[in-house]
Each structure stands twice: as structure tokens, then as C-alpha cells.
Amino acid sequence: MSIEFLSGRQLSKAILKVIDGENIRCAVAFWGETLVDSLQTKSCIAIRLRKAKIVCNLAMGGTNPRAIRALGAPDKPEIRHDDNLHAKVYLSDAGMVVSSANASANGIGVTHGPAAFIEAGSFFPPQSKQWAAALVWFDNLFNDAAIVDEKTLVRAERLLSSQWDLRERPHLPGSLFDFVARNANGFKSVGFVITETETTEEEREIVRKDAIKKNPGEKDAVNAIDDNWMYIDWEHKDISLWPHTFISMHLNEDRELVEVCGGEVKFCSSEKGYVLADGIHWNQIRKLMPHGAPLLSMIKQTDGETAWNLLRAESEEAGGVMFPNAQELARALAMLDG
User: Fold this and answer.
1) pTM here?
2) For the chain, which domains are there?
3) What local confidence, expressed as pLDDT, does residue 165 receive?
């Protein structure tokens, strides 16, 4: 067997062949509801899939939680999730398919006829170097992913039920969050950072030394960074996705927004978990928003409680939360509404 480029029915057949093999591993972002029906059968594929190791994405609204429950979640060690997964890789002893096709009727057709979308991908035979490399990649992804629990499924169900339907969402004049929820796709490249905790002088000194070490010709620029624009002790994935231009929102202990302003990244290290930024004029931020964005003064008065809820939804102990773009923030808001 050799590497093959596939599309249409041939791609669907190849995926079904792979998941009819032994030792199935699927790093597939999105799983559709149609899969639920096929998993109610006693077919060989249904039985094998229930034994598969699976990593999916339950954070973007593209996976139907019913499908994941049908696979055996929650609290099944073989069913895991990663919020950053967007790949579609099907692996087994029968080979590997890497494609654009999700595990759904639209993607591969499953047992309900041809796929609805135009998909393409490649088949790699078992024991090929690409197949072997993918096994290592999958194992690393799987080990780092979280087991799907009931809380994750409930949040995914809320997100799916929202489906960006804002007809019943009460309008909140002056709210940036309400504006994002209604106009997410109209925003340009701007992210959102909500913080509550303050950095310490010791932490800032350590970070400045590291930034100067990494950027020896920028010592003056590093030292010129204002203490309030130093984001320290963040997770690797947050730093990796941190937007160059962002809106910074800082809360006090009374859940009041004491600062809302625009910033740009100057220095960062995903290894050390920090971002050093500098403030920019709010007019530069407004250029990245759709027409009709609320006034800065109104945002401060209106959005403190929602900012606090977004922070707490991330973690009871989290000192900050970052959304790389308006779409991700809108998804988080939809989950709060649910």
C-alpha cells in the first residue's frame, strides 16, 4: 500500500476502514449528532469506537455532547478533550487518515449516506514513517488532554444550545460584552484579557531580567515597561495564543472594573509564562471594532459583574483569563448565559 490522496466517497471509505481496525486512536476536533445513531447499533465499527482512545474539542461549539456521551463519557479515561484541538486524524492498525473531515454526517457520512461537505485528505499505510510519527504525536496529545467529565459536557451542552441565538438575550446598553456577543464576527484582530490579581515586585524583577537576557539589545525598552502591563505566571497555551493587540480589563475585589484600556505585546515568553505590553490609545482599539461600540466610560460602569463571572468560570483561583479573539469571548459569554 502507498500514500493516497482521497476525497468524497473514497475518503469516507478510508476513514471507516481505519476505525474498523484495531487499536483505534482519533484526534478529531468535532463529533456530530448523527454519530449517536450509529453508536446505538451493534456493528463492529460501533463496538470498536467505544473502545477507542479519543481526543475531541468541546470548547468551540462544534461537537455534540450526545455523541461523546454515546462513546462512554463522562469519566471514561479513553475519552479526552483539548480546547485547542482542530486536527482530524484517524489512526489504527489499519492505517491513518489525515483530513479535513470531522466525525459527522457532514464530514464522513458515517452510516447515513455520503458526506454533505466537500472534504479531502490523505491515507497513510500502517508501519509507514508518517503513521509511526503520528502514533507518537497522538500519545503526547492524549497524555496532555483532560478526561471528559460531567462539568465539561454540561458546559458543551449549554454552548451548543445557545448556537449564537441572541433573540432571548436581554440587550445591555453600554456593555462591551453584550456588543461582542452580538457582533463577534465584525471585530478585527483584537483579544481580551481580564485580570484580578497584582504582580509582586519580586516577580517583576525576575521577569525583567529574563526578558533582558532574551533581548539584550532592548534593555531600556524592557525597563520602560509599566508594572501594570506585566502579565506573569500564565499558562504556556495562553502565552502562545496571546493576541498582539488586546483590551485589558482589570477588576478590584469589589468586582468593579478599575481599568479598561488597549495594549500591545512588546515582549513575551511562553516558556516562562509572561507577557510585557504597552498601552495604546483607545481610538486604535475602536478601529478594530464594528461601528456602534460602547463608550469606554460606559464599559467601566456596566461590565464589572460579567468580567468577574468570566474570570470565575475559568477557575475559582484564576487571577486572569485571556480570550484571543472576539469569537472565543462570545463563546464564553454564551456558556455563561446557558
Assistant:
1) 0.58
2) 4-161 (3.30.870.10), 176-337 (no CATH)
3) 54
